[in-house]
């Protein structure tokens, strides 16, 4: 039995992950954590998640939560995730990270700490989005350099980072396949007399509203034709199942930084 702990246990993803652990074979919820002062601290994690009592109360003491865990699944915020990763690295607990919005420095911090423990870090844990990453690479290989690329993402009005981690990864995949540097060619804002669009740029557009779970479209726009590769998430459950699959996959792995392409065997 692989013992899993969950941080952000009362969050939108936390609840779905706890439910997915309950439904998975060979895994059990060993602990659940929230930030100190959170209204759900002390409550049964299963009741908070809506999947029935699990006999595991949400705690604000992560070290104590990790004492009985093999893997921590963390969908919180970059600053919180990095602090939690430091604790995991010290205690030798493996980690699955779903948080998005890392700065380049924070990403380096994750890579440095992943030299001590095995870590899966992925901006999107769904099979469909990870298939799209492969399709995008293939699209560029077929289409070559002749199409303008624009990426549009839509999410709910509670999302804190923009563009989404998934959109950024899509931009990186396309830029890489085109032999460009994403950090140099991404354009996030157009207003006023912008001048003509350069051929090299990749436009990154963000829409926020209501309860949209997550939608991503990459447009390849040519002369007289347009290709659109779209992924629409209908619920958060496949992100949660992906994180649980990653936790399972980490069993027996050596320290290092892995992603969902490793977990799904897509590399
Ligand atoms: N990789 C993937 O497949 C996916 C990634 N995500 C990403 O996951 C992250 C979380 O998303 P979502 O669940 O919607 O966000 P939520 O805000 O609903 O959940 C985050 C939770 O973390 C809690 N939290 C804050 N600080 C701590 C702490 N120190 N210890 C433990 N818990 C803490 C928050 O509490 P409080 O609200 O009180 O601050 C909240 O309950 C985002 O970065 C999002 O982009 C989302 C979906 C899929
Ligand atoms: O915050 C969300 O909700 C989501 N975040 C991830 C991202 O930033 O890419 C993945 C998913 O689209 C939902």
UniProtKB/TrEMBL annotation:
Keywords: Amino-acid biosynthesis, Cytoplasm, Diaminopimelate biosynthesis, Lysine biosynthesis, NAD, NADP, Oxidoreductase
Domain Dihydrodipicolinate reductase C-terminal: 128-264
An annotated GO BP: diaminopimelate biosynthetic process
Catalytic reaction equation(s): (S)-2,3,4,5-tetrahydrodipicolinate + NADP(+) + H2O = (2S,4S)-4-hydroxy-2,3,4,5-tetrahydrodipicolinate + NADPH + H(+); (S)-2,3,4,5-tetrahydrodipicolinate + NAD(+) + H2O = (2S,4S)-4-hydroxy-2,3,4,5-tetrahydrodipicolinate + NADH + H(+)
Gene3D superfamilies: Dihydrodipicolinate Reductase, domain 2, NAD(P)-binding Rossmann-like Domain
GO molecular function: 4-hydroxy-tetrahydrodipicolinate reductase; NAD binding; NADP binding; oxidoreductase activity, acting on CH or CH2 groups, NAD or NADP as acceptor
Active site positions, chain numbering: 155, 159
Subunit (UniProt): Homotetramer.
PANTHER family: 4-HYDROXY-TETRAHYDRODIPICOLINATE REDUCTASE 1, CHLOROPLASTIC-RELATED, DIHYDRODIPICOLINATE REDUCTASE
Family: Belongs to the DapB family.
Protein name: 4-hydroxy-tetrahydrodipicolinate reductase
């Amino acid at each position: 039995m692989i013992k899993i702990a969950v941080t952000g246990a009362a969050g939108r993803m936390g609840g779905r992950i706890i439910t997915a652990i309950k439904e998975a074979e060979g895994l059990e919820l060993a602990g659940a954590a929230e930030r100190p002062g959170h209204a759900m601290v002390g409550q049964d994690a299963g009741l908070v998640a809506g999947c029935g009592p699990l006999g595991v109360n949400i705690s604000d003491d992560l070290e104590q939560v990790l004492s009985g865990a093999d893997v921590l699944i963390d969908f919180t915020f970059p600053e919180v995730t990095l602090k939690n990763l430091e604790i995991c690295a010290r205690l030798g607990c493996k980690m699955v990270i779903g948080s998005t919005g890392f700065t380049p420095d924070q990403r380096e911090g994750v890579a440095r700490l992943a030299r001590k423990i095995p870590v899966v870090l992925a901006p999107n844990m769904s099979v469909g989005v990870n298939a799209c990453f492969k399709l995008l690479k293939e699209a560029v290989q077929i289409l070559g350099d002749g199409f303008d690329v624009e990426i549009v993402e839509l999410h709910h009005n509670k999302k804190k980072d923009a563009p989404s981690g998934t959109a950024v990864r899509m931009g990186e995949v396309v830029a890489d396949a085109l032999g460009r540097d994403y950090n140099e060619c991404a354009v996030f804002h157009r207003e006023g007399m912008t001048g003509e669009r350069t051929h090299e740029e990749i436009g990154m557009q963000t829409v926020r509203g209501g309860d949209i779970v997550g939608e991503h479209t990459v447009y390849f726009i040519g002369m007289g034709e347009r290709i659109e590769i779209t992924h629409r998430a209908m619920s958060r459950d496949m992100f949660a199942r992906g994180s649980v699959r990653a936790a399972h996959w980490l069993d027996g792995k050596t320290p290092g930084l892995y992603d969902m392409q490793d977990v799904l065997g897509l590399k």
